[in-house]
Write a structure and sequence with these properties.
The complex is a heterodimer of chains A (about 850) and B (about 150).
Chain A: H1 2-11, H2 16-35, H3 39-60, H4 64-68, H5 77-91, H6 93-97, E1 100-101, E2 110-111, H7 119-133, H8 140-166, H9 169-181, H10 183-186, H11 196-217, H12 220-236, H13 240-256, H14 262-279, H15 288-291, H16 296-317, H17 321-348, H18 357-363, H19 366-371, H20 373-377, H21 386-393, H22 396-409, H23 413-431, H24 436-474, H25 479-523, E3 532-535, E4 541-544, H26 546-557, E5 563-565, H27 571-578, E6 581-582, H28 591-602, H29 605-614, E7 619-623, H30 638-648, H31 671-675, H32 677-683, H33 716-722, H34 734-744, E8 747-748, E9 753-754, E10 765-770, E11 776-781, H35 784-787, H36 790-793, H37 796-802, H38 805-810, H39 816-828
Parallel strand pairs in A: 5-6, 5-7
Antiparallel strand pairs in A: 1-2, 3-4, 7-11, 8-9, 10-11
Helix pairs in contact in A: 3-8, 3-9, 5-7, 5-27, 7-8, 8-9, 8-11, 9-24, 11-12, 11-14, 12-14, 13-16, 13-23, 14-16, 16-17, 22-24, 23-24, 24-25, 26-27, 28-29, 28-30
Chain B: H1 2-15, H2 33-48, H3 51-57, E1 63-66, E2 73-76, H4 88-110, H5 118-146
Antiparallel strand pairs in B: 1-2
Classes of the chains: A mainly alpha (about 850), B mainly alpha (about 150).
Keywords (chain B): Membrane, Transmembrane, Transmembrane helix
Protein name (chain B): Oligosaccharyltransferase complex subunit
Family (chain B): Belongs to the OSTC family.
Amino acid sequence: MGGKTEPANGESNQTPMVAQVSMKPDLFNFSLKTLKLKVKQQELLIRVGILCLVYVLAFIIRLFSVLRYESMIHEFDPYFNYRTTVFLTEKGFYEFWNWFDSESWYPLGRIIGGTLYPGLMVTAALIYWVLRFLRFAVHIREVCVLTAPFFASNTTLVAYFFGKEIWGSGAGLVASALIAICPGYISRSVAGSYDNEGVAIFALLLTFYLFVKAVKTGSLAWALASAFAYFYMVSAWGGYVFIINLIPLYVMVLLITGRNSMRLYVAYNCMYILGMLLAMQIRFVGFQHVQSGEHMAAMFMFFLMQVVYFLDWVKHMLNDSKLFQAFLRITVTCAVGVGALALGVGMASGYISPWTGRFYSLLDPTYAKDHIPIIASVSEHQPTAWSSFMFDYHILLFLFPAGLYFCFKRLLDATIFIVMYGLTSMYFAGVMVRLILVATPAVCLISAIAVSATIRNLTSLIRTKNKAVHTGSSKGSTSAKASSKASLDQSMPFQRNGAIALLLGAFYLLSRYAIHCTWVTSEAYSSPSIVLSARGAHGGRVIFDDYREAYFWLQQNTPPDAKVMSWWDYGYQITAMGNRTVIVDNNTWNNTHIATVGRAMSSYEDEAYEIMRSLDVDYVLVVFGGVTGYSSDDINKFLWMVRIGGGVFPVIKEPDYLVNGEYRVDKGAAPKMLNCLMYKLSYYRFGELTTEYGKPPGLANSLSSFLEEDVWDVPANIFNCLVPASDAIAGVCPRDTLANIMYCFRYDRARGVEIGNKDVKLEHLEEAYTTTNWIVRIYKVKPPSLSALEPLVSNKTFAEADETASSYAKRLIVGPSIIGLMSGNRAAQ
Amino acid sequence: MDPLLHLLKIVPYSFLRVPRTRLKLPSFSLPSAMTVYALVLLTYFMVVSGFVYDVIVEPPGIGSTQDRVTGAVRPVVFLPGRVNGQYIIEGLSSGFMFVLGGIGIVFMDLALDRNRAKSVKVSFASAGISSVVIAYVMSMLFLRIKIPAYLS
């Protein structure tokens, strides 16, 4: 700064005053000038700023459930991942890789080291060890809960670079912003959802980005990088099959459209061979890349590329076209013949296995419904309705076809890839709801192309308007030019305003998208399924923590070697939180074992007891939603138990449990339904449900919602006993009191009916624990010596039958809190 | 291998002559990009209308409910209660709205093409804008009917 003034001083004596005066404005100008960046630097600053904001946004929008409840693992599958991660951090990688677990699938056990995808656990463990190394004393649970949002933020960065490759940096920025809040992705990567998909989508997009980069540049380094990204994807999720089929399809399309080049050759060969060799390092995948039918497309493409390039090389060497034609014919027939022969021998000898059921049902969606009930029973595997698409994508559904149009207008290698990814993934998303997740990056990228192209058009409309006015006013030379400019000038004002209005409209649509995404995340996708919540009568939130209560009870009050039988949904949670051995769990690898449990649940108590004795079962756990109106309980899943059990043991027949094809649990239900083990365990003691809060006169106000109910078929003698004369007057409508009583008198809220079999007696089991809101019920299996003495020992069931209805009713004091709770629940439903 | 080849050369090919066939592999030319795009739009319409859902779950075309007071049977267009469920007609109409919105944006882009007459450009632009507006409003309406608690 001083140097500037020196020449002024040294130059002449005339200007010392001027120099002094000019020093201050010089300083002022200088500081402004240093701050003023060049246009390119400004653009870089804006871009980096946007990316940082999007990174933070992607992380914090996924934190709703951590803020509302606590930092805990959600759902079912993440508990298994959590348990294995804890094992990994405690015992080390060698123990983890060779782990045989005898606490699940009793008595078979499970080779965990060889039947899981280790990517997620190893990633979380690495983050944990890095943080520990930096002396942050975090618990592994916090790392597990926040792994998915962290990787979602990283996915936005990869989306930016991918968008930049395909279309331009503007499209990249829009893509990263769209994918940060897209509900299709948030649904599986919310904080607490510690599942493979959280990491796998990052790996998927990274693999695709690196492969497209390799095809664009033809560089070996990028191809190697994509092979390693593919290895990470294989280690993370079984959905890697999508990559290994999409990339050969893409190569095929490029060959067909005549875009083959050395770059494609280098990229595909390197990625396939190295990726295949790396993928074989995962024990669960093993030799599937050479043995399984699902991976054969990639191998076929590999050999086809060699043939194509061989022919190309021969054509280049031979300058004679006729000879080349003959050679071409011979080679093609030979290649096709040898290939068909190899494939035929492979499939006939059984070396190459056909497509497994899970993936075959994607090609033929009707397959699972008829043949594999376990796959068909999972609610995530149902086909997608339009509302699921709208819920998860909102305006991206409009932008997707528009983006496809822009891609088709400018067909390059990269845009062909994103079009293929978008179309194939949208088809699979239509087949199975769960796969909306895989389609989300493609939809976001293509929509970003539409947004970027449209906004570019609109802003160019606004800008050229300015330029034309300027040149028109400054030059004004020849009359022709002036007239053309003048004619343009006439339409311009209308166009310019229209373009500004459309730009505002585009911003309005994008802001509505952001509002929608936030609402969906907050309401629909942030619930840890292990903790249920409902709105009480006065709008306050009520939380049911029954699951954890039951698992904690199991951990504290049962012997350490106790075996628990439940439906497979709860297996992972019982092993992770209750720390007890289970019979079947969510891995569902052994259909016969699950069918045995299903048979036990749907048989009469005696047969079920035999099965339970043979499996050494000590406790049985059922989930029951009749008191709270929780609809995902075991009675609603019961038909699947029947179907799966009946699939292996023909003695269980589904029509036995239905009445005229209808599934009922009320008086008109099938007799086998009313006496099977699941029914008994769910409704045991349900008829005597009593609560203690409040008094009858105060109930009329909160019972208005019950006037709609139709449960009026009370036998006359009970009715007369139940309604004491004093209560029936004084403004309290008898109907209210009746509803009140009927309500707690074995009215199943989840099914909406009064149950059929009122007095449930259990012979071989006894109730061990029922949670506060009756959601989880645990029963102890009695050892064989006591059950023979049961009828002589306990008389409670006979004594109950002697009570008169009036004394029964006097024990029924229904509290306003439960009623209010339930009417609030009904409104929420 | 060699004696075999010599044998092959002599045995069949000495008395057999390969006929000169005039068969040609049918040559196919690739369709234009916009033809493919039209097909893609059609498949997109089918997928997004829940076509696979219709084929597998086989819902009725339109639902019905009985009026409690009069006993008349009233049609129900939108399947209530679940997000992932639909009747056939509601799926098709929603899918049509989505495709309409997409086509609207395409029309808006076509309106900026310099090689067309001004009136054509103006009509493209107005058709595009109205399509997008109608598609968005209708889709929001459908969503609100389907999910009553939307945005509350």
